[in-house]
Amino acid sequence: MATNADQVTALRWKKFPVLNDGFVCLVDLMGDDQSVVQAARVSYGEGTRKVSDDRGLIRYLLRHRHTTPFEMSEVKLLVRVPMDCWRQWIRHRTANVNEYSTRYSLAINAMQTTTHDGWRTQAVQNRQGSSGFVDERQGEALSASEAEFQERARALYEERIALGVAREQARKDLPLSTYTEAYWKVDLHNLLHFLALRMDSHAQWEIREYATTIGEQIMKPLFPIVWEAFVDYRLEGVFLSRLERDVIVRLVARLATAGRAQGSEEDFLAAQDPAWVDMQRCRERDECREKLRGLNLLK
Ligand SMILES: Cc1cc2nc3c(=O)[nH]c(=O)nc-3n(C[C@H](O)[C@H](O)[C@H](O)COP(=O)(O)OP(=O)(O)OC[C@H]3O[C@@H](n4cnc5c(N)ncnc54)[C@H](O)[C@@H]3O)c2cc1C
């Protein structure tokens, strides 16, 4: 069986491609599943515990949202990300960052491109999301104008540089699709927090691609037990508010009386929280409905 040291050797500096020209790669690692256990059991030492005890402890810690044992491990990545995506990424303040400087060096000559079938349409319900795709013929035109624009923007940048304009000023009209690179170091607790937010379906597709690659290609092999618990309790777990719990209780009682296993929209509306009844649009109700569908309680 591969040890953690073998996994680290195999992964270090291996570039996992993301988008058309981005990547993530592991640079350094401190810790493994065992470090979480060691931190939590600081008073006991190794002893004679079985692996299954360690797994149970890690799962307990993650389930109950303990933090500091997960802060004992650190991961350093090198990432190459388009600027618009990086702007979202950099909001996670608990990481340490060193970014490529376009004051010292020429801006990276690569931009995120979109394939003809990759242009998403604006979501109607979720104002900051997308849903579906523009048709392929329109997509072809959009990709062609994107290529033309990106080429012009780069040419303008290089013209300014050739005329002696300072790099710090010449860059100002480069598009947000321009790639940047950075070292990004974060502890395991905050990395899991980042992944929970950015692997979520509400996150923008581009950053989700990065988060999913970090999670599945790097974290999963390096922290297999933590990763399993993270998927079970965070990524695929369902959190229920007091209101949602009460909706379920009312809905299940209604279904039991009617002798049905699954409810309709009418059942859901009858069981909804009283405060939602008079609202035309209610995001909390929509979220509740989605959760109940996921639990197979609603059609
Ligand atoms: C789907 C989605 C949509 C978003 N939309 C927007 C938007 O429209 N506009 C916008 O501006 N942002 C938006 N954000 C960014 C979001 O509000 C957070 O800034 C970002 O996700 C970083 O999360 P964080 O603060 O929890 O992470 P980190 O900065 O890594 O912090 C981790 C945790 O540490 C603690 N912490 C860190 N720093 C401090 C501090 N200074 N004081 C107190 N506690 C601290 C907090 O508990 C925090 O949760 C969005 C994020 C997501 C995932």
Summary?
Helices cover 49% and strands 14% of the residues. The protein has 299 residues and is α+β, with helices and mostly antiparallel strands. A 5-stranded antiparallel beta sheet has the order 1-2-3-7-4. A two-stranded antiparallel ribbon has the order 5-6.
Task: Give a written overview of the molecule.
The longest helix has 27 residues. This protein is 49% helix and 14% strand. The protein folds into three domains: 157 residues, Gyrase A, domain 2 (2-Layer Sandwich); 54 residues; 53 residues. The protein has a five-stranded antiparallel sheet. Strands 5-6 form a two-stranded antiparallel ribbon. With 299 residues, it is an alpha+beta fold. The structure holds flavin-adenine dinucleotide. The site of flavin-adenine dinucleotide (FAD) has 9 residues, from helix 8.
Task: Give the second-level CATH assignment, the architecture of the largest domain.
Answer: 2-Layer Sandwich
**Helix content range of the residues, please?**
40-55%
Question: Average pLDDT value?
Answer: 94
Instruction: Just give the CATH class of the largest domain.
Output: Alpha Beta
Instruction: Compute the CA-based radius of gyration.
Output: 24 Å
- Main beta-sheet strand count, sense and barrel state: 5 strands, antiparallel
Which spans have pLDDT < 50 for at least 5 consecutive residues?
Answer: none
End-to-end Cα distance: 45 Å
Quote the CATH topology of the largest domain: Gyrase A, domain 2
Q: What hetero molecules are bound to the protein chains?
A: flavin-adenine dinucleotide
Gross geometry: flat
The overall number of domains is: 3
The fraction of residues in strands falls at 5-15%
The helix tally amounts to 13
Encode the helix/strand succession as letters: HEEHHHEHEEEHHEHHHHHH
Structural class: alpha+beta
- What is the spatial order of strands in the main beta sheet? 1-2-3-7-4
- What's the β-strand tally? 7
